[in-house]
Specification:
With 602 residues, the protein is α/β, with parallel strands linked by helices. The protein contains 23 helices and 17 strands.
Length: 602
């Protein structure tokens, strides 16, 4: 498969020109080009479906050129299914393009690919002729968003779904309850939102609207209501269902809580049966996530018995159970889906027992891991790319994410995970992934995501300036900084909780510095090319910019010292050592490349 894929992509990827992300299964060059300069026309031939027509209309509004004919074989399922065919065939010729798919799902994926092709570096005469055969490697390609620790308004959910559709992610896992908040309106049990949400919850109409918004973009919505642990927000309104005397209340802090449903009380199951029946009418997807993680109060046997009863309740509402890997137990039926967050071994054990599983370990966005590290994590790496592995999910827990910095915490890094879950396993070129991720960043901004706009706004606020161009020094510094890991941030600000404003520099800077990896690659080229003059001058431009930067911040003081030493060809042991350490809860992302440059004797 690797040889086939490399040959097929030789025209676009090996020339370093393609912006396609995720990379398609196969790409074959054709003859000629589709002329630019003509207005975009889209003709849907044969079967029409409202969500496909809506997708075509959104596609038209993005702009483009030429003629695109769309042909689908049949309508999609009334409720989007895990087993629906998502493949498509796209052929671009000198006279126009044809997109063929078995159903609207594949057609929507093909529209995203064509939209990216229309943004390729324009060769004279327009879009190069090409034939793309594409289908996903994994059927389950998800993004989990926690809205309990910090509530995310509906417009933030919409933007998240837009980004997911752009990179062909197809499952939105909505983490709706935890110790810090219960986020859904229940008419049957209104004290859930009255006592457990601080007034921040989604109405039933909003839930339905989000589910439809997602379906229109080829995305399933899987809700999670965490039981039997992490139940403080449930028990705040219904304390009689908990273990122990209470009282129970919503927690503001992040960890160390032990609010648990009492599995010995029959009324617990009556309550959950009625509640889940109500939620089943709002969330049509076949899967329902019950959490099940970090339940230290119960014995393994108690939790297993609770889960068996809950699985039976869900089956009565035509739902399949999904849970975190702590629920794995030989006594559970084999149709229960296990989500592995503690490591690949849990996924391996899931598959060994003959159960379906998905991987999240290695894809946690809130850990501030670089895209390059997440990119190389593969659900099929251990136990093998077998049928039991359905795919994976990238996850954002929102201890340090808010409505304002949400987009930057997810994008564009989630695109690296999306490619791992869609594209052939042999697609592993990290520098090329970085290049295409930078292009995706621009595309997402055009779609209305606010990762860049809010970054600039937060920096203006930190610089105490209302004008867009008045914080160049802070922007120069922020562009080469990254937040520390979740563990580091908790150590630096141990008292941070749900009420702590997320308005500091660490909250504004991007999880991954584009400038840092571009500078690192520039330094590597310079050192590997026997210190070419062209690369030297480009490096010096960066060094002069940083050496002259005037911002009163410890990270900037270190940046200035390193850049000045690099320009002077000077080694200062204390400065080199300082470059290896965090500055509070921040990292100087260009530090390693500057150290390498200085030690090599620029």
């Amino acid at each position: 498969m690797r040889t086939l894929w490399v040959v097929a992509l030789s025209v676009l990827l090996l020339r370093g020109e393609s912006r396609l992300l995720p990379a398609p299964y196969s790409v074959h060059a054709g003859q000629g080009r589709m002329a630019a300069g003509t207005d975009l026309r889209v003709e849907v031939e044969g079967l029409h479906e409202p969500r496909l027509d809506a997708a075509v209309e959104r596609f038209r509004k993005r702009g483009g050129y030429g003629l695109l004919r769309v042909r689908i074989g049949s309508a999609g399922n009334a409720v989007q299914s895990l087993d629906e065919d998502e493949s498509y065939h796209l052929e671009v010729t000198s006279t126009g393009a044809t997109l063929t798919a078995p159903n609207p799902l594949g057609a929507m994926h093909g529209l995203e690919t064509f939209s990216q092709l229309a943004r390729e570096p324009a060769a004279p005469g327009g879009m190069e002729a090409v034939t793309i055969e594409d289908h996903p490697r994994y059927r389950w390609r998800g993004l989990m968003l926690d809205v309990s620790r910090h509530f995310i308004p509906v417009d933030g959910i919409h933007r998240t779904l837009e980004g997911m559709a752009a990179v062909k992610l197809n499952v939105f896992h909505w983490h709706l309850s935890d110790d810090q908040g219960f986020r859904v309106e229940s008419r049957r049990y209104p004290r859930l939102q009255e006592s457990g949400s601080d007034g921040l919850f989604y109405t039933r109409d909003q839930i339905r609207e989000v589910v439809q918004y997602a379906r229109d973009r080829g995305i399933r919505v899987v809700p999670e209501f965490d039981v039997p642990g992490h139940a403080a927000s449930w028990l705040a309104g219904y304390p009689e269902l908990g273990m122990g005397p209470g009282p129970f209340h919503v927690f503001r802090t992040w960890a160390g809580h032990d609010a648990v449903f009492d599995p010995a009380k029959p009324e617990v199951y009556e309550f959950l049966d009625r509640f889940l029946g109500e939620m089943a009418t709002l969330f049509p997807d076949a899967y329902f996530h019950i959490g099940g993680d970090e339940v230290s109060t119960l014995s393994r046997g108690q939790q297993a018995e609770f889960n068996r009863k809950l699985r039976k309740i869900l089956a009565g509402h035509a739902k399949q159970m999904e849970g975190w890997d702590e629920i794995l137990d030989p006594a559970l039926p084999n149709d229960v889906l296990i989500q592995s967050w503690r490591g690949a071994k849990a996924l391996a054990e899931t598959v060994r027992q003959g159960r379906p599983g998905i991987l999240s370990a290695g894809y946690y966005l809130n850990l501030m891991e670089p895209s390059s590290k997440m990119y190389l994590v593969d659900p099929g790496g251990e136990p093998g790319d077998g049928p039991g592995v359905l795919g994976g999910e990238t996850c954002l827990w929102t201890e340090f994410a808010s409505a304002e910095n949400l987009d930057s915490r997810i994008w564009p890094r989630a695109g690296a995970v999306a490619e791992r879950l869609w594209s052939p396993a042999s697609v592993r070129d990290i520098p090329d992934m970085h290049r295409r991720l930078a292009l995706l960043d621009q595309e997402l901004e055009e779609l209305g995501l606010q990762h860049n706009a809010n970054y600039r706004a937060m920096l203006r606020r930190l610089a105490d300036s209302p004008k867009p161009g008045d914080s160049p020094g802070l922007r120069t510094l922020a562009d080469v900084l990254e937040p520390g890991s979740l563990g580091l941030r908790r150590r630096v600000t141990p008292l941070a909780d749900q009420t702590t404003p997320l308005d500091r520099l660490v909250d504004a800077v991007r999880p991954e510095s584009v400038v840092a990896w571009q500078f690192s690659e520039l330094v590597d080229r310079y050192l590997h090319s026997r210190k070419s003059e062209a690369n030297r001058e480009e490096i010096n431009r960066w060094l002069r910019l940083w050496a002259a930067n005037r911002v009163n911040h410890p990270a900037n003081a270190l940046l200035v010292r390193l850049a000045t030493d690099a320009l002077a060809g000077r080694r200062n042991r204390q400065t080199l050592e300082a470059a290896k350490r965090p500055i509070g809860d921040l990292h100087l992302a260009v530090g390693p490349a500057l150290v390498k440059l200085i030690l090599a004797g620029k």
